[in-house]
Structure formats: structure tokens, C-alpha cells
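Milestone M4 deliverable, item 7.
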Amino acid sequence: MSGARVTPRKEIKRQRRRHSHSCWDHLIIAPLWPKYGVNLGTLLRTCDAVGACMAVPKLPWMPEALDKGNTLRRPACVHWTGRDPIAWLSRHREQGSRIVGVELADEAIRLADLAAARERTVVVLGHEHDGIPDDAMELIDVAIEIPMVGTGASLNVAVAGSLVLYRLAGFL
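Output delivered:
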């Protein structure tokens, strides 16, 4: 039995796209109630990896957090939602977007049962401690639960969002 084949770095680079995406409008992650700027940088990296975009409220500290968190050193695909996340979410729903919320809810489906996105999809992430507000939950088409066996109630926004993005992009 032979060991695992290690793919040379040059071959991996050759298989990837040559330029960053210009905003694949098909998949948008929306941490609409962010608490920690460091999580946004992690999500930007994941967006680049799966060809998604990020939508965030234009809070005073947000541009600096995004700039600091963008370790790719090139422009990231960021949409500004304004200061009213519910209105922004409502507009996307009216325009036909599928709205997916990452939240513990009675009728939530498990992450493993989530199919890859085949239509414009907005993934809503809630506040680190309070989750997605009730008025936003009314706009959600499907809630996603990420199963956990540990003692924590949830994963942080960056980890949860990254898992869901990879699943919706069809990579998991």
C-alpha cells in the first residue's frame, strides 16, 4: 500500500482560476449584525475561496475591519447593506433570492441535508450572542443547524458561515 499522493504546489496553482472573481452574485454571505471585525476577515477569505460575496452594514468601524481582515491584499467582493438589515433582506427576498439563516430553530435542517445553491442565495448570519432577530427570521426560507456535540451553544460566525458557504457552493 502506498502513501497519500501529495499534490505539488505548482499543480494546485495551475488548477485554480487565474484571477479573482468579479462578484459571483449567486451566493452572498450576510453577517448583518456583526460583533467582531476579525470574523469578517475570515469570511472574506472563504468568499474568495468559493466565489461568493459578502454583504455587511455600513457601520463606522466596518471599513477598517474589512481592510484589516482582507489578508488577500486585493479588493474583496463586499456589498454595503445600509443601516437597516431587515429592509435590505426584504428587498433581496422580493427580488427572488432564497434566504438561508444559520440559526437554531424548530424547523431547521441539518447542514448535511442542505443542497448546493442553484439560485441566488443569501446566507444570513446573526449576532454572535443573540442570533438572528425575530423580524429577520420571518424572512428566512430555510434555517440551517450545524450539529454540535460539545458544550458550546454555537460556533463563531466565521466558522459557521464558512461551513455553510462551502456546502452551498457544492464543495462539501
